[in-house]
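Two records follow; treat each independently.
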Amino acid sequence: MNGHDRNMQAHRSHSTSMVFLLGVVLLTIIHLVNTTVPCTENNSKILQKGVKLARLMNRTTADITKTYQAYQGDFVEQFCKMSMDNVPASTLSGRTSSERVLSIYTHLKEFLPHVKKVLEQQNDLQPPSSPLLPVLSQLKEQINHLAQRVNCIFQILQPNILVPEPPAWPTRIPPAQNIFQQKVYGCVVLTRLSEFLSATLEELRSLKGSMGKKRTGKELLSNSWN
């Protein structure tokens, strides 16, 4: 088997796995997201679904990044670690849980236009049948859904404060790029998003655990008075 055949086989393997992945994602999103009546579930369920959605996105974004690299042709993974000031950072900020949750929300909103831009670029670079396109489109929707969940979590922590919308950053979307620059930009965006989602998952898990302990403590205290 020559190099071309091996590449074609790898692409077919990626195509099959990504189509399956997209189906799993769609089913899970339907279960985890209620877009008609947001933030009406009890606190533990909101947190639980937020953690599940973050875990799903963390896993799928890592897979999408690998698939993205495979579909860029002669491409080196190190390009994905290049410094780009216009792409959001992958780290959270804030000293309190509320501040870090707000940081998650802000980052999701900042990543969204970049993912849209990557999708636009790949629509021009990839054939219409490429399985990379639908999963990038689905990733864009997932970011919106997770932002909605994080908004609800922030309301649990700060019920009297509305989540401030981050300012628009139109100048942070890169201007016209050549094909190589587009490939690098897309991989940097997806790599940082994957790292950010890993930090998000860790933060939401920690928050879920700490709130669970508080609830258990209150229940024990209540039972001791009965």
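The next record belongs to a different protein.
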Amino acid sequence: MGSESPLYSWQPKAVVFDCDGLLMDTEPCWTVAETELFARRGLPFGVEQKALVIGRSLPDAAEAVAELFQEPGRGPAIADELLGLVAEVVGSRAEAMPGAHDLVAAVASAVPVAVASNSPRALLEAALLRGGFTGVFPVSIAADEVDDPKPAPDMYLRACEMLGVAPGDALAFEDSMTGLRSARAAGLRVVGVPTLHHDDFPADQVVASLGDDGLVGWVRRWPI
């Protein structure tokens, strides 16, 4: 991963970053909260259960969990329960992903940037504050601010509209298949930094981290 690719002969006019698992290492925070949510019901939380919720919006994840818990109709209540657990952990434990600050700074010095997160606004703000990204993104979109969050294209389409660029001229950074599908559906090219192992993560370029030498070198070649 991280070798030169055709993508690196192109330059975007704007860049949209995901947050959870991409800029901020919040997935462990979600895992702590989700483990507690399951433990309260005497259930284990492992890889199979994580795959059920990762990348989804909070309402969608809660509905899936409610079905698993055999608690029909309690999706909204479970979402509120999980949100409270996650907010507490994110505010005290979440850290920026390796290379995130340097890459965002390099990108933002060359092109307009945005963040588009499948978390609700309260969690997005908590994560950005904890990670030192407050005020970095002129455009910021949360899942509870669009009709259809990821994997629908709405968030990326709105981000591009607010940035004043066509989706085909924009680049997305994503760590989940849900986010990848959203960006693809909107027409953006995608750099993937997968949180979970995928034999097939069909991004235009897949790297192990935001500090990947090939990725950083490409961004630094963009004219400022």
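Discussion point: The two ends are 27 Å apart (CA to CA). How would you locate this feature using only the token line?
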